[in-house]
Each structure stands twice: as C-alpha cells, then as structure tokens.
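Key idea: predict the complex, not the pieces.
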Amino acid sequence: MAILKTLLYILAYPGFLFIFVYSTFCEWFDRKVYAHLQNRMGPTHTGRWGILQPVADFVKLLAKEDIVPERADKTLFTLLPVFGIAAVSTAMLLLPVWHYDLAQPSPNSFSGDIIVLLYILTLPTLVFFLAAWSSTSFFSTIGGARVLTMLFGYEVPLFLAVLSPAIMAGSWRLAEIAAFFAHKPLLILPNIIGFIVSVICLQAKLERTPFDIPHAETEIVGGTFTEYSGKKLALFRLMTDVEMVVGSGLIAAAFLGGFPGGVLLGFIHFVIKTLFIIFLLSLIRALTSRIRIDQVISFSWKYLAPLAVLQLLITIVLKGFSR
Amino acid sequence: MRIAAFLPEILRHLFKKPATVDYPFVKLEVPKDFRGTPFLHPELCIVCRACVRDCPAEAIDILTVSEADKKFKMIIHNDRCIHCAQCVESCPTTPKALEMDHLFEISAFSRWDLKKEWEYVKAQVKPKAAAGTPSAEAKS
Amino acid sequence: MKFTVPIGPQHPALKEPISLRMTLEGEVIRDADIRLGYNHRGLEKLAEEKTWLQNIYLTERICGICSHSHATCYTQGVEKLMEIEPPKRGIYLRFLVAELERVHSHLLWLGVAGHEAGFDTFFMYTWRDREVVMDILEMVSGNRVHYAINTLGGVRRDIDDLQKKKILDSLAILRQRTEYYLKIGANEPSFVARIAGVGHLSKEDALALCAVGPMARASDIAQDVRKDDPYGMYGEVPFEVATATTGDVLGRVVVRVKELMQSYNIIEFLLKNLPDGPVAVRAPRRAKPNEVVSRYEAPRGENIHYIRSNGTDKPERLKVRAPTLANYPATVVMLKNGFIADIPLIFAAIDPCICCAERTVTLVDGRSGQENIVLMSELRRRAQERWKKAPPKKDAVWPF
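Result:
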C-alpha cells in the first residue's frame, strides 16, 4: 500500500505528471504575456487560447531525428539532458507546498534545505556547460564559456539576496521562513531590495533576455543547444521550464510568505504566487535588449552585489533592533 | 538614460487589442487597384499581340486555331506571371480586353492547373469616323 | 591563440547568404574576409535579352526592399537615352513612392537592428508601424513590394484626393511614432550599451574606403546624391542632409531616424504641391546608340546604373553598382578589434542588401595581379578536378 502511494507521488502529484503539466502551463503563460506586451497574439490556435502549444512543441521535438555529432562524447552527450531533468525535479520536491509538518523535519523539509535547494539549482548551469563542452562544435564551445562566465556574475548576488529573509526569520528551513512571513506580511517591505535583486538574478540564471547571451540566436546559432535535436532538445527545453517554476517557487517561499493553508489553499497560493513572479520575469524580458558578456559581469558586480550586501545589512540592523 | 524607459508603453499594450490579423479566420481587404491575376474579355480582343510582346515573363501565348474563321486561343500562364500588369497597359482597345482581378490566394498542387485558356473569334476594330464622311462606317 | 571561424553562408544573423571568415583571438576579432557570390543570378546578362520596357520589371527584382530605387535609376537613364522628358506630375509621383520606400526601408532596418541586439519588443513595434506604410503603398501602386509604378516616360498610375488624404493621415501617425522611438530608443540603457561605441569608422577611413549612404553620413560626411547632383525634382524640395558625428552604430541609428523625419517632410511637400497634368509621355521603342550613367540615392546609399544602347530595342550593356558593394571594404575595417557579440550588429549597421551587391565575379591572380573574368563552366571544371585529386580530410575545419 505504501509502495503504491509512493509510486503515485512520484508519477502523478507532485511527481512527473504534475511537473510536466504545470511547467508547460507556465511556459504558455510566459509566452502569452510576452506576446501581448508586444501587441501581438502569441499562441492562439492549439487548444483553447493556445494552451496546448508548449505540449505540442514538446511532442513535435520528440518525433524529430536525433543526431549526435561524430566528434562528440557520446555518453556525456546522451546522459546530460536526463541528468538535468532529474536535478530540477528533485529541486521541485524541496518546495514547501506538499506534505510538510512544521513541528518536525521530514525528508522534503528540514533545517538547511534552502541551502540544498540553491545548490541543486546550480546543477542545471553545470549541465549546460558540460553539454556545450561535449558537443565540440565551435559555436557551442563559445556558448559554454559564456555560461560559466555568467555564473561568476549572478551566483553571489542571488545567494546573498535569498539568504537575507532567512536571517530575518532566524531559520534555515524554507517552511519556517515562509510561515514567518505569512504571519507578518508587512515585513516584505524592508526586503524589497532583496526581492528585486533576486528576481533579476533569477532571470540571469534562467538565461532569458537581457541575459540570454549563452544561447543568443543571432550570434552563435544556439550556443549550448546548437548540436542538440530531437528528444534531447525536448528534455532540455522542459528542464528550462521546470527551472523557471522552481526558481519562482523559491523566491515566493522566501519573500512572499510561502503557501500556507493546507493542501488545497496552499496549492492555490502556489499557483498565484509563482504566476506573479513569472509575470515579472516576462516583463523584464520584454523590456530590455541583450547585453554583452562583459557588461553582464560589470553590471552584476557594480550594482547587484552591492545592493544584495545592502539588503543584508538592513536585515541585520532590523534584527538587532527587534531584540 | 532612464531605467526601463519602455515600461509605460509596454504595460499599456497589455490591454490593447493585438495588431495581428487572425488570418485565415479573418480575411484581409485589398484596395481597389490591387494587381491580382490577369484575365481576358474575349469579345474585345483584336489579336494585336502587344501583350505577348511586352510581357517580361513570357506568360501570354496567342495561338491561331483557324485562320479562315479568325479563331484564336489565348493561354495565360499564371505560374510564370509576375503580376506587373504591363499587359493591361499595353492593350490598345477601349475598354481594355485584359483586366487584373483581385485574387491573391492563388495556389494549386501542380503548375499545370494554373494555366487559363480562352478560345474566341477576333473582334473587329471599329475605325474612327473621319470628320465629315458619313460613309466610313464600321462592319460589325 | 588565433583560430578562424566562418559566419555564414547560412547563419541566423544573416538574411541572405554571404561568407564572413573571421580570425579570432578569444572573443576579439583580428581579421575579417568577405566572400561574395552566393546570390549571383546573372541579371546583367538577362537584361541584354529583354526590351527596354521589360527591363524595368527585371531591375525592380534585383532587390525586394530597395526595388523602386533600381527601377527608377534604370528608368531615369533610359529616358535620358531616349531623350524624352517625363511631365512634372509624373516626376512628383515617382519620387513620392521613392520617399515612401525610404520610410519603409528605414523602419525595417530599425527593427532588424533591434532584433540583432536582442531587443525584440522594439523589432515588433517598428514592424507594426511599417505596416502602415505598406498599406499606403498597396493603395497607391497595387502591391506591397515591387511597386512597378515606373514606366518609360513617367508613371503608370495617378492618385486621387481620397488617397492623398489617407496618406497625409498616416503620415501624422508615423511622425508621432518615429519621434517616440527617437526619444525612447536612444535612451533605453541596455540597447544603448549594446550599440554605442561599436563598429567605429573614422571620417578619414570612411572617405578613403568610399563608404556611401548612412554609413558615411554617420561619420560626419555630408554626402547625399539628392543634394550633390539633384535629379528629378529634388532641386526644388527643401530638406536637410542628416549627419551624426559619432561614427558608430548609434550614430547610424540617429542618421536613419533623422532621415525618416526628413522624408515625412518631403512627402508632405510633394503631396501639397502636386502639379496637374498628364502622368506619362509616350516612349519610343528604340534608343539611339549612346551610353549613360544614372545615379540615385537609395535608402542604403548611392546606386549607380550604367546603360549602353546600340540603336536596337534591347540594351547592349547594363551594369549595376549597388550601395552595399561600396560599403563592404569599410565593413572589414569596422569588424577588426570588435567582439564576436558585435558581429551581427556591425554587419546589420551597414544595412546589407546582399542580393543587390552580387554581380560578376572577377578573379585576381595573387602573384601576377592579372584579372580575368571566368565562366561558370570553367569554374565548375576546375572545382571537379581539384576535388578528384584532394585526399579526404577527417578534421577539416573549412573545406577550401
């Protein structure tokens, strides 16, 4: 009986089926908002309001021919998409939405799980780099080098910004941070700088405009993904979508007060708060143009990192006052 | 240099109707002088072959079916036509024997389906009546 | 460590096939080599087989964006050969369409520059406004591209008052949108960071390498065929030559937007002062033996057509020198010491119309300096010989 229940959890909710359905829904939402901001329609005809368009893209890619370049490292080339999906799906399980008891730790909610979540979210970036490196094509090598260079830019501000609500709440457990902010919603206001910095850093982690240099279409023909096709490319695209959901879930749990209220109400909170953050991400995407790699580094070290440190100082000062 | 200079504009567009026309469910209107495909009014053609001479793409052919009965056949190769309407302009009759229609959704599965043919008898040119000579009348 | 990377012939940044071989050191470009010929169609030879009237439609199809420039340049030259003078109303209408084409071409370029820089919102907005111009052109000439409004001796169609009013109304909308783009586009921080200081061409270099069009005008050279050698009615129309002093991609954006505003003024002047009368005169079938050079300011720069006739109804030689061809040497200089990330922007900033620039190929022997024009069959034979003799390479980076 327990085995059946675990199997249901892994396959249906909150397992692969739910991840697939929800992340394709979020991709549809992002594309629709982006299109309307640009005065055009976006996906319209596949399913009602085009809601099945990302699923259609996934199915179409599964049916295409899968070409592995001659000089590429075949084992690494084939295994990396699967490894990436595994990493982000595991990260999804650590969000405080499903089955946690605030009083005692459980395998998916324990003290220090915010650090573990941030660590697992670094894995997709390494997967991108290894995918680019093992493709041995000129364009993908440049893309891989750019992925790592960007990692030096946004990783530190992201960590600092996400850790300051943890300091304010006095705990390293995501569920407790979320509960703390759910009880005192006004405390988001001192954290607003950290919120903005973490949203921008999330945009950089997801490699979307203005930070989509590693797979800039007009310059290096696809960067990391140049040599991928067919099923592997479908899995990579799904991985980016799931990363988007996990990242916005992390920021919603840390800053916006999490997902309180039990099973049904918590789920509704999850949907609304992640869609809000995805709306902000689409807004940034429509607003700016791509910047060069050296400009990314200088921007993040000149503006983002100092702002994150400032946020940390504010949190520490406020915590000192409240004692 | 303003941060997010475009922001008010794009937020406003969130509530506007999209500029895209939902073709093919909504059809577009073409203006009245649109150059579509050429077609013939057979009763007006005097077989001067000016259109054949002037077509840049050699898309009009006039064949003689019977010299005695003055029957001719015009074939317009719409797969070669470049829709320039020079044939309409070169046609000397009034009203013009060739005219452009407004079709733009012209596609077929084979190029042989795009050729149109007309078989007709050559029309008589009415000579202009010289001033003050009532006997110079047309033979109809 | 230097290595050579090919951009093209197929590449998402290029709209047409061209091969740019860059020698790179890290992310910095050290040298660039441009190879042409992928879009060669044999138009100049085909022009010798068609009559003067049929050639208008042929020259129009040299390019899709600057189609009216080639057709007008050719028609001007042939009218000179045939010694006929089109009536005033015909000339005004011809250059009304010419200025509308300039508007559509510059709006297209603004969108393409935005897209190459990754600024897709700007791309969508400018191309939505370009639809206004395309609708006007469809109303005036019957087609959205390849207007075919020229004929030997004038234009083929006339416009009535209702159409005039529609054009003036659309102009008001376009003027407002263009001013908005100048105000915002030149101030959006990420966009300006991408295009400022990129692809710098100094004034001396621009003069020495014979840059034409907005490339030269952005390096502070006030050179415009409409002012230097007025053709048509440009002698009577008041307008200014738009220049910028920075000489980089931002300067070229500014020059093109300023030219847009000047074109709106010219169109308004033409519509308000349209003279009455016929729109065309009859043209003879044959032209006397003579040769003529016709110049025209296309949206990309100076367009030159050389036509020679020998008394028959077909031309003896037609030679087309498109503006993009004149800008290629300057592109090589601009690409040196730039970043890889800037290649699409620098190349897009010259507004490349590669199909305009593909004419006969001349082979220069590197050792003796001797030039000879080689037939296609000869080139094919040589390539097959070489292919048979060369051993198969496993790690070939570039097959030549």
